[in-house]
Design brief:
This protein has 326 residues and is α/β, with parallel strands linked by helices. It has four domains: 64 residues, Winged helix-like DNA-binding domain superfamily/Winged helix DNA-binding domain (Arc Repressor Mutant, subunit A, Orthogonal Bundle), CATH 1.10.10.10; 43 residues; 76 residues, Rossmann fold (3-Layer(aba) Sandwich); 94 residues, 3-Layer(aba) Sandwich (Rossmann fold), CATH 3.40.50. The protein is 49% helix and 17% strand. The protein is built from 13 helices and 13 strands. Helix 8 links the parallel strand 6 and strand 7. Helix 1 packs across helix 3. The chain is globular, with a radius of gyration of 22 Å. The protein starts with 12 loop residues before the first helix and ends with a helix.
Length: 326
C-alpha cells in the first residue's frame, strides 16, 4: 500500500489518507481481509506523523471500512461487515500469543491476571468519552459534520439521518450526552425529542478554499455536479450560483446513475463532488471518476461546521468530560 500526500492541497492531511484508502477499497485494490501496515510502519514509510495516521485509521474504522484487531493488526472489512466468527478466532489467537509472550518473560498466571485487570481498567477510564448524536438531512452533510466532531478530543459520534428520525413514531432519544443538528433542522428535531431534551444548533458552511476555487473558474466552464441526495445537490448548485461566474448552468447527476455520470464526465470540464464521495459512490462510478481526479478535473465541495459553532461544541464536550472525570 502506498500513500501520497500533497502538502499544497487544502484540508487536513488525515483526510487525504482517508480518501486514498477509501478509494482503493472501493476499487478493490485493497480487498477484504487485506492487512494494512501498522501506524508506526506507515509513518516510517510515508514520513507522516503517527498521530495523523492513527486519526485516519480511526475514521476509516468508524466508517466500517477497516477492522482493528488488537494484537493481530488492522484489516480491510468485508463489504457486508466484519465476519464475527473470523474476528472471534483472531481475538482468541491474539490472546494466546500474548499469554505465550508473557510466559516467556517468566510472569506467573497470577501476575498476568493482575496486568490484564489493570489494563482493562485503564481502557475503561479512557473510553469514558462524551457521546454525541449528529443529525442532518443528507448523507453527505452528515458525513462532513461527523468527521469534524469526531476530531474533537474525548468525543464519540453517532450519525442519524433526519428523515429516519422524523419518520420514527417514537420520540428521538439516542441515549447520548449531546445531540447536534444544523440550525435549519433545529425546530423539527426539538419536536421529536423529550420536553427536557434540546439539541445544540450548528452552522454549516462551504469552506473558503472551495468558494475560491468556484470563483476562479472561467465563465465558460461547464460544471457537472454529482451527488448522492437531492438535498446536498441543491446545496452544491446554490454554491455554483453564489460563487461562480458561470455562463452555463451546472449539469446534475447522481451516483446511482452510471450512464448520466459517464455523460457528465465526457461533457463537463470540471466536476463538483461531495466530501468523501468514495464512501457513497458505487465502485464502478469511483473507477470512472478516478481518471478525472488524476487530471485535476474534480473540485471537492468541502462542507464544514462554522468555527464558532465548533468551538462552542468543543467547550460543551470539555465541560462534560471534566465533570465526568472529576
Amino acid at each position: 500500500m502506498y500513500i501520497t500526500i500533497d502538502t499544497t492541497k487544502p484540508g487536513p492531511l488525515y483526510q487525504q489518507i482517508v480518501d486514498q484508502i477509501s478509494r482503493d477499497i472501493a476499487l478493490n485494490s485493497l480487498s477484504p481481509g487485506y492487512q494494512l501496515p501498522t501506524v508506526r510502519q506507515l509513518a516510517a514509510e510515508s514520513g507522516i506523523s503517527p498521530g495523523t495516521i492513527k486519526h485516519a485509521y480511526d475514521m476509516l474504522e468508524q466508517a466500517g471500512l477497516i477492522i482493528k484487531n488488537r494484537g493481530s493488526g488492522t484489516f480491510v472489512a468485508s463489504p457486508h461487515g466484519a465476519d464475527k466468527k473470523g474476528a472471534k478466532a483472531q481475538a482468541m489467537q491474539a490472546i494466546d500469543d500474548l499469554l505465550i509472550r508473557l510466559k516467556e518473560l517468566a510472569f506467573s498466571p497470577r501476575d498476568i491476571r493482575i496486568f490484564l485487570d489493570l489494563k482493562l481498567r485503564e481502557w475503561e477510564e479512557q473510553s469514558a468519552n462524551i457521546t454525541v448524536a449528529a443529525v442532518d438531512c443528507s448523507p453527505e452533510a452528515l458525513s462532513a459534520m461527523y468527521q469534524q466532531i469526531a476530531d474533537l478530543p474525548h468525543t464519540e459520534v453517532f450519525k442519524f439521518l433526519l428523515e429516519d428520525v422524523l419518520n420514527d413514531p417514537k420520540r428521538f432519544d439516542p441515549g447520548t450526552d449531546l445531540v447536534v443538528t444544523t440550525s435549519t433542522h433545529y425546530e423539527d428535531l426539538i419536536k421529536k425529542m423529550a420536553p427536557d431534551g434540546r439539541p445544540s444548533p450548528l452552522v454549516m458552511a462551504i469552506a473558503t478554499s472551495t468558494a475560491l476555487e468556484l470563483a476562479g473558474l472561467p465563465p465558460d466552464t461547464l460544471v457537472g455536479v454529482i451527488s448522492v441526495s437531492r438535498r446536498f445537490a441543491q446545496i452544491m448548485l446554490r454554491a455554483c450560483d453564489q460563487y461562480g461566474k458561470l455562463i452555463n448552468p451546472p449539469r446534475l447527476a447522481f451516483f446511482d446513475d452510471e450512464e448520466r455520470v459517464s455523460q457528465l464526465i465526457q461533457e463537463c470540464g470540471r466536476l463538483l463532488l461531495p466530501p468523501n464521495y468514495y464512501l457513497f459512490a458505487p465502485p464502478v462510478v469511483v473507477s470512472l471518476l478516478k481518471s478525472c481526479e488524476q487530471a485535476h478535473r474534480i473540485i471537492h465541495y468541502c462542507y464544514q461546521v462554522e468555527r464558532g459553532s465548533l468551538l462552542y461544541l468543543e467547550e460543551q464536550v470539555n465541560r462534560l468530560f471534566r465533570t465526568r472525570n472529576e
